[in-house]
């Protein structure tokens, strides 16, 4: 067979600028305490939500964020609340709590009450707070990536200086619309941080079984989008990475990917029997890298006494119990609410 003529060699790839390797955030004692409080609030809130689900107070789906607390708390603590927007999937309670939104209105949303943040009509997966520029809460895997790209387009179009933080999972990272969004975002240098919360599983499928390229921070390479892999169990590493990514995007350099290596301790949702991994696997992660224990140790090293940490814990338990009582007692929406907040048009 005749040999194919040699192809002209490809032009050399020009040196492209890379983001700096993020340094861990240097937190003051007050900042560390603040991280600790937010993460512990998410943990206790989610435990309580799990209990209320078991008691039948919460219907439908309920996906808990236990184990992943450092990601939302670390990243969102770096945002400018006046300008920046956030969007995520259905595992969204933690992202709302990280904003400091009242746990009462989040819990009341879970129990489908009129006082809930989406008037009791969204439930666990569809929480919104436009006041905080938090655009959901989405049940369709990967949908938030293209919607988030739209939010970033809006930031750029109206020149408002904002950046969108679009979270999605390791499973969602295999969806087609993610890559259409990447292409457009890089082409138009949109101000967006794509945050892949790699919690190692998409329902019952481990990332290694589902992903040909399991180093997810590299998923933007063919679109020239840089990526950084981050220890998502370390809130200081998360915050440090957020600072670096925000500096990149705010400088007009376009999108960036953060792959947060994390782990979910509970099942995919409350109805997951979790037969695809062993208890030992979960326990080993808890023992070795629990994000809250990590910060607790740092606080102790800074001289914070056990009593002080105990009183933080007590205050949070009280806050969560009050949220649960409120969510059980406050009324359900009026039937007439079925006809509000809906779009009726012909196309
Ligand atoms: C388009 C679409 N396909 C499938 C599903 C069903 N589904 C819900 S969650 C999920 C797994 C997603 O996993 P991942 O992106 O890793 O997020 P995690 O649940 O781990 O946070 C799937 C397949 C869905 N909701 N939407
Ligand atoms: Mg996952």
UniProtKB/TrEMBL annotation:
Signal peptide: none annotated. Keywords: Oxidoreductase, Pyruvate, Thiamine pyrophosphate. It holds the Pfam family E1_dh. Its cofactor is thiamine diphosphate. One of its GO terms (molecular function) is pyruvate dehydrogenase (acetyl-transferring) activity. It catalyses: N(6)-[(R)-lipoyl]-L-lysyl-[protein] + pyruvate + H(+) = N(6)-[(R)-S(8)-acetyldihydrolipoyl]-L-lysyl-[protein] + CO2. Residues 38-334 form the Dehydrogenase E1 component domain. One of its GO terms (biological process) is pyruvate decarboxylation to acetyl-CoA. It is an enzyme of class 1 (oxidoreductase). Its EC number is 1.2.4.1. Residues 1-23 are annotated as: Disordered. InterPro entries: DH_E1 (IPR001017), PDH_E1_Alpha_Subunit (IPR050642), Pyrv_DH_E1_asu_subgrp-y (IPR017597), THDP-binding (IPR029061). PANTHER family: PYRUVATE DEHYDROGENASE E1 COMPONENT SUBUNIT ALPHA, PYRUVATE DEHYDROGENASE E1 COMPONENT, ALPHA SUBUNIT BACTERIAL AND ORGANELLAR. The pyruvate dehydrogenase complex catalyzes the overall conversion of pyruvate to acetyl-CoA and CO(2). It contains multiple copies of three enzymatic components: pyruvate dehydrogenase (E1), dihydrolipoamide acetyltransferase (E2) and lipoamide dehydrogenase (E3). Heterodimer of an alpha and a beta chain. This is Pyruvate dehydrogenase E1 component subunit alpha. The lineage of its organism: Bacteria, Pseudomonadati, Pseudomonadota, Alphaproteobacteria, Sphingomonadales.
């Amino acid at each position: 067979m005749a040999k194919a003529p040699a192809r002209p060699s490809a032009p050399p790839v020009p040196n492209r600028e890379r983001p700096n390797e993020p340094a861990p955030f240097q937190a003051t004692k007050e900042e560390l305490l603040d991280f600790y409080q937010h993460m512990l609030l998410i943990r206790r809130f989610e435990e309580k939500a799990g209990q209320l689900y078991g008691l039948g107070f919460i219907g439908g789906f309920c996906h808990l964020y236990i184990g992943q607390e450092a990601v939302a708390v670390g990243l969102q603590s770096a945002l400018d609340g006046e300008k920046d927007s956030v969007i995520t999937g259905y595992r969204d309670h933690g992202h709302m709590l990280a904003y400091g939104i009242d746990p009462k209105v989040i819990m009341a949303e879970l129990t489908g009450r009129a006082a809930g943040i989406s008037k009791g009509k969204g439930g666990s997966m569809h929480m919104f707070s436009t006041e905080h520029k938090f655009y959901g809460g989405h049940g369709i895997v990967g949908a938030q990536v293209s919607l988030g790209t739209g939010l970033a387009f809006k930031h750029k179009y109206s020149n408002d200086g904002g950046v969108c933080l679009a979270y999605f999972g390791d499973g969602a990272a295999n969806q087609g619309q993610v890559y259409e969004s990447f292409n457009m975002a890089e082409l138009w240098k949109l101000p967006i941080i794509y945050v892949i919360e790699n919690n190692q599983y998409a329902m019952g499928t481990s990332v290694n079984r589902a992903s040909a390229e399991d180093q997810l921070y590299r998923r933007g390479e063919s679109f020239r989008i840089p990526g950084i892999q981050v220890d998502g169990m370390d809130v200081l590493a998360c915050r440090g990475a957020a600072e670096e990514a925000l500096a990149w995007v705010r400088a007009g350099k376009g999108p960036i990917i953060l792959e947060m290596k994390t782990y979910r301790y509970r099942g995919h949702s409350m109805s997951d029997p979790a037969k695809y991994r062993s208890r030992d696997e979960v326990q080993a992660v808890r023992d070795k890298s629990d994000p809250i224990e990590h910060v607790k140790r740092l606080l102790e090293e800074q001289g914070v006494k056990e009593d002080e940490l105990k009183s933080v814990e007590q205050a949070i338990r009280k806050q969560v119990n009050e949220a649960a009582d409120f969510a059980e007692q406050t009324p359900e929406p009026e039937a007439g609410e079925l006809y509000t907040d809906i779009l009726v048009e012909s196309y």
